[in-house]
Structure formats: C-alpha cells, structure tokens
Amino acid sequence: MDGMTANDITHVVDADRAHVWHHLIQHKPFETGEPRIIVEGKGMRVWDQHGKEHLDAVAGGVWTVNVGYGRESIANAVRDQILKMNFFGGTVGTIPGALFAEKLIAKMPGMTRVYYCNSGSEANEKAFKMVRQIAHKRYGGKKTKILYRDRDYHGSTLATMSAGGQDERNAQYGPFAPDFIRVPHCMEYRKHEQDGAPDQNYGEWAAGQIEEVILREGPDTVGALCLEPVTAGGGVITPPEGYWERVQEICEKYDILLHIDEVVCGMGRTGVWFGYQNYGVKPDIVTMAKGVASGYAAISCCVTSEKVFELFKDDASDPMNYFRDISTFGGCTAGPAAALENMRILEDEDLLGNTLTMGARMVDNLQALAEKHRVIGDVRGKGLFCGAELVTDRDTKEPMHEKMVQAVVADCMQQGVIIGATNRSIPSKNNTLCFSPPLIATADDIDEITNAVDGALGRVFA
Ligand code: PLP
C-alpha cells in the first residue's frame, strides 16, 4: 500500500477501534479482532489494511460504486469544480447543478425538476414533505397518507423508517410518524405465505392488494404510494409480471402520486437508467442517490414531474405556496460535478449494455449453481442486481438460518470475493445472497464471483 508503513496501519486500526462507531454492527468482535479497513480501490477491486485483494461484488458494500474505483476523470472534475466554486447554498443555482439537472431530465421522459440533497433518506423525506404539503394545499389537509410496502426500505431517518417495511430494522426506534400505511409486498416466490394468492396472474393480484388497502383507508385520504422498483435490502425482490401496469392504473384511478425510490436501482443498476423504465411506468416523483455519483461525492436528488412542480408555483392568494425546505449541502458543487462525469462514463463505456449482458451471465451462473446446490431455492435478478435465496427445504421454502448465510458470505470473503446478504436479522427472512458488482464487471469477474459462491456453498453445506 502506497506510502503506508506497518506502524501507520496499526495506528489507523487502533484509531478506528477506539473511536469509530461502525454502521449496522455490534462492536464486541472488534475487542479481540480487527475492524476491516478498506485502503485502496481500483476498477472492481479493493485492498484492505493487510494488502489483501478483494473482488467487490457489492459496489462498495451498499450498491453504490457503479462506475468502479479509482476514476481519475471524476476526481479531476470534482477538483476543478471545487477550486472554482465549491459551495453556495440556499436559493441560488450553480453551474454543475444546472447542467446535471438538464442531463438527468433528458434520461427521464415525463420528469422536469431536480431537487438536490445528500442522501437517499433525505431525498425520500423531501418527497414525503411534498406529498404532505400538496395534501394541505390542494386537498384541505386530507390525502396525507403515504403507502409503503412490506419489505421495502426508504431510509434511516424517523420519517423514512415510518415508511419502512423491514420490521427488524424498525424495532426499538418507535414511535413513528402517523399516516404511513403498510401494503403487502409482491414476492412471487413466497406467495404461499400470502392468504388467497392465486397460481395465475399473481402480479395483478398483488397490485390489487394495494387497492384493497386504499379502499379500506379511503382513497380521499391517500396522497402517495412509495415503492422500490426492485426491492433491495428486503430480499432482492423483482416484481412479478403485470404488477407495475396495475399499480399505475390504481394510482391514476384514485389520484394518488406514484413515488418511486430509485436510491439503489437508479443510474443503470438494472441495465436501464432507472428501474421503473423496465416496466413502462410514469412516476410523479423519483428519488435517487447511491449510483448518482458512484460514491465519489454525496449527492441525492428528488426529481418530480411538472404536474407536481406546478402545485408549488406562485399563488398570489397564498404566500406560503412554495416548497419551504432546504438542504445545506444541496449547494455543494462536488456532487453534481461528479454526477455529470459519472453519467458521461456510463454513456461512453456503454455500461448499461454491459449491465444487461453481465447481469444475464450472473443469473445463468447462479441458476447453474442452483442445479448443484439444493439450498438455493430461488434465483432473481434484473441487470447487475441479483439474489440467490437460500432455503433449508425446496418444498417448504423454509428460509435458511442467517448464521449459515453469513458463513457463506464469510467463506467468499476468505476467498477474496465480497458478496452481500440482505439485511440479516430476526425474523430471518434475510436469507438471500446479494450480488451487485460495479457495472464495469467483465465475464471473468462474474465467473470469479459465482465460482467463489460455488466453493463456499460446497464447504458450508458439506
Ligand atoms: N432507499 C433505498 C431503496 C435504500 O436501499 C436506501 C439505503 O440503502 C435508502 C433509501 C436510504 O439511503 P441513505 O442510506 O443514503 O439515506
């Protein structure tokens, strides 16, 4: 590792152990073991504090580094921009802010406005606030309810957790905000767990379950429906056929805004710019974060249609009729500067095309593994966003215990391949191995990942 002595590394590890509060983990293991520090990255690979090389099959752990590590052109774009003008917040605009908005909107027919913020949670909060303000402005304080789906995740803040469909994440953080209403998920593989689910046309039926909730709550009280196009942390749930078409019809029928959370799927992850574009849906609000600048800068966007924006336009009778919201670091130029270059790379290197080809290879490879390893109950995927669900029994589909799933992840890590498992906790529905490499993955990379999984499954379930 360039320029670091053994002493430097020991210092870093000690400082981390003493002072860093890591995300999503208990710290007991660090008392005897070391926290893992990622020191360098290039392309698809990262190196830890011991110089051990890893192939990254999770794009920075959380579906983020879409264009891979060590992109000099992004670093240069950010450097040039921040030397010229690093920040101005509040009511003003900036050059990269305007240019990225123009470029982004060109990829999103039907959408017209970009609201800048910093994280996926924040973008979703902005969307929720827009829906609430519209409810007050247009519907006399009714239509404040926001529907969200079981197993979907929209963020870590209290409002986004109020819209959180993963109980294991929400436990002990309540009480939550009112008027967030849960609707059922659409997981075909686990439809046997849903009362009344049909053998045929499951997608339409699952969307119909949302309509039932709307009718129960009263359509005049429901302002928006918020969904992930492909559910990420909740189990890599790809939507069944016919689902999205029906969801769109339902939203139109009851005058409900469709908010699509593209925090994970946005910027090419599924092989198209945005996950919803796989299904021909026309959203009113789209939120995005992770892949927008591939982790080279913190940026998120809440994008709306003109129909939504219009509702906030000047109104002489109501001086409060504008979006009374701000995000300090929405004025950072590093984000849109990085995002512009990130998008250029995605286009010039045809990474969307690559995602489709490599995603198909990943699914084929995983399906071949399923022939060999009976613990793989289901293989799902859209582009380079794939999952393999582990079960103890293919007939009952009893989820594999998370300890075993974690053993597979650990074995792969040992082999130098970082894979994920969707957020593991109790109750253990979190039994799905997750693969979301940077979109630059080659055929050799994909094969290396699935070969590692093959070896790991063989050892763990010997
Ligand atoms: N929405 C989805 C679908 C996510 O997966 C996440 C994070 O993983 C978020 C929102 C929250 O994003 P952030 O952690 O940037 O706040």
From TrEMBL:
The keyword Transferase applies. Signal peptide: none annotated. It comes from the Bacteria. One of its GO terms (molecular function) is pyridoxal phosphate binding. Its EC number is 2.6.1.77. Keywords: Aminotransferase, Pyridoxal phosphate, Pyruvate, Transferase. Gene3D superfamilies: Aspartate Aminotransferase, domain 1, Type I PLP-dependent aspartate aminotransferase-like (Major domain). Its cofactor is pyridoxal 5'-phosphate. Belongs to the class-III pyridoxal-phosphate-dependent aminotransferase family. This is Taurine--pyruvate aminotransferase. It comes from Pseudooctadecabacter jejudonensis.
